[in-house]
Amino acid sequence: MPFAPPGSASPGSASPGSAPRGRDRKAVVVPAHAGRLRPLPGDRPSCAVIGGGIAGIAAATILAERGVAVTLYERQPTLGGRLAGWPEVLRDGSHVTMSRGFHAFFRQYYNLRGLLRRVDPGLDRLTGLPDYPLTHASGLRDSFARVPRTPPWSALGFVALSPSFGWRDLARMNPREALPLLDVSLPDVYRRYDGLSARAFLDGIGFPPAAQHLAFEVFSRSFFADPGDLSAAELVLMFHIYFLGSSEGLLFDVPDEPYPQALWDPLARYLRGHDVRILSGTEVEDLRPGPDGGHIVTTASSERHADAVVLAVDTDGLRSIVSRSPTLCDAAWRGRIDALRTAPPFLVSRLWLDTPVGRHRPGFLGTSGYGPLDNVSVLDRWEGEAARWAAKSGGSVVELHAYAVNTATDRRRLAGELLTQLRHVYPETSRARIVDERHELRSDCPLFIVGGQESRPTVDTPDPTVTVAGDLVRTDHPVALMERAATTGFLAANAHLRRWGLRGQTLWTVPTAGRSAALRLLARTGSRRPAP
Fold first, then answer.
1. pLDDT of amino acid 319
2. Do the Cβ atoms of 515 and 39 come closer than 8 Å?
3. Residue 389 needs a FRET pair 20 to 30 A away by CA distance; which of 99, 399, 401, 467 works?
4. Does residue 326 have a cis peptide bond before it, meaning omega lies within 30 degrees of 0?
5. CA 76 to the chain's CA centroid
6. CA 475 to CA 318: how far, in whole Å?
7. Which letter does DSSP use for residue 409 in this model?
8. Bridge partners of 73?
9. Beta strands of 33-155 (E only): which ranges?
10. What are phi and psi of 25, to 5 degrees?
11. Predicted confidence (pLDDT) per residue in 485-528, tens digit
């Protein structure tokens, strides 16, 4: 179903009210199933949502809005999952919020943004960055600020403006391999490309090496994986979501304060206002069948019954709970969960510097060719807390990321190399003294290996009272990263609501196939031609 007229349900809205607050008139609605808005008197079901990240919060939100008794379990002290934040005190006495790093809130994240609208209807806590620049150590630099947002003009505009990808490069590409990019659909994209690595795919279509580094490799590293290990299907899907399939473009928003203050604290208040019991700092040890159906959820301090369960934890958390719950679902499903892998570690280094970064520097910069450095963020360009510290100290707050880190790498040595590369990228930082620093080395993101799509969990499981949500979950909707987490969170809740006769959550996605009938025909015709 295409873009809905005014008066229809907005993406992620709890009730009808307005059209999607995006610009893409070909956005697709996934209608909510019909049902009651609240349970019948004396028939209130209960659900345990395990995991307090985006997926778990999304599931808990719509379940609670429909009157379900929800208990939300989160192992860490605060909500947010991989976007959580926690307080720190710097050496200068400043109280700051540390996190696991920068995340981009793209404008085609309809369902995530719908979740945030519960507490921020105008999304006033999100602020747009004016560009998504990418730079290579060779001197090449790409920008998306002036690239048109609507396909196919977005691709043509990128070619016209890009120093790393020109018309000659376009002419040298292998059309038989590249044309299917114009007609991406699910689940066909996995049938075609899941058995191929992202790097092999790029080499096969003849994508120029410089543009590979600047554009596609930046996308692939959003999955914290080396392109040689990443399924090409995920990369092709990303290309559709952000570039050829959506007219929302590649520019994005960021929260104007740290994640807890801008996002999770307001959502926690919203959930509590809907009678959600939030048990933070509480790890679920195992699940076992209840004596009269449902599940017993065991923690170190309690056992609670729930009619249904949403498993919204990261890969290691899911494997751990399943391994300790030998009666959960069936043996084949548990075996597939046990085989899941996490991506290589990533390092986030945040530096509080005593001198400012140049005013002309962007808030975010993707980098390639600078050793392990994958991007640089200047937090005081958009985050209120960082801006206040910078104004008080006369300095700046800079964050450096390194993805797909070798497990044998020494963290201190890697942090030192990131600092060295920062001084190459922004030479003015060579004069800066580090007031304080924090370094977070983590390894808990899902790895979408070549040929691994079929073994990934879906929202549904062999037990209809158990669903799974998160960015690791396989779905036939064109979503990725944070939007996959939000979407599958709502889908996991919807599955339970449907069984209970309660109305579900309306969802939205980018178009589910190529935007133009002519381009789709060209793609299908070209892909059937024999290779030259």
1. 97
2. no
3. 401
4. no
5. 19
6. 17
7. S
8. 50, 279
9. 46-50, 69-74, 85-89, 95-99, 105-106, 126-128, 134-136, 141-142
10. -80, -5
11. 999 999 999 999 999 999 999 999 999 887 766 666 666 655 54
Residue 385: CB partners within 8 Å, gap ≥ 6? 96, 97, 257, 258, 261
DSSP for residue 405: -
Q: E strand or H helix at 435, and its extent? A: strand 434-442
- Phi and psi at residue 296, to the nearest 5°: -100, 120
Residue with tokens 């599940």: 295
Query: Using 50, 70 and 90 to split pLDDT, how confident is the model at 17?
Result: very low
Distance from C-alpha of 185 to C-alpha of 513, rounded to nearest angstrom: 5
Task: List all residues 6 or more positions away from 279 whose beta carbon is below 8 Å from its beta carbon.
Answer: 71, 72, 73, 74, 299
Give the span between the Cα atoms of 452 and 473, in whole angstroms: 12
Share of the chain above pLDDT 70, in %: 85
Q: In the 3-class helix/strand/coil scheme, how is 460-493 assigned residue by residue?
A: ECCCCCEEECCCCCECCCCCCHHHHHHHHHHHHH
Region at 93 (left for phi over 0; alpha for psi -120 to 50; beta for the rest): left
CA distance 313 to 140: 40
Residue 113 has pLDDT above 60, yes or no: yes
Handedness of CA 357, 358, 364, 366 (dihedral sign): negative
What string of DSSP letters covers 7-54? TSBPTT-SSB----SSS-TT-EEEPPPP-BSSPPTT---EEEEE--SH
- DSSP string computed for 176-238: HHHGGGGG--TTHHHHHHTTSBHHHHHHHHT--HHHIIIIIHHHHGGGTS-TTTBBHHHHHHH
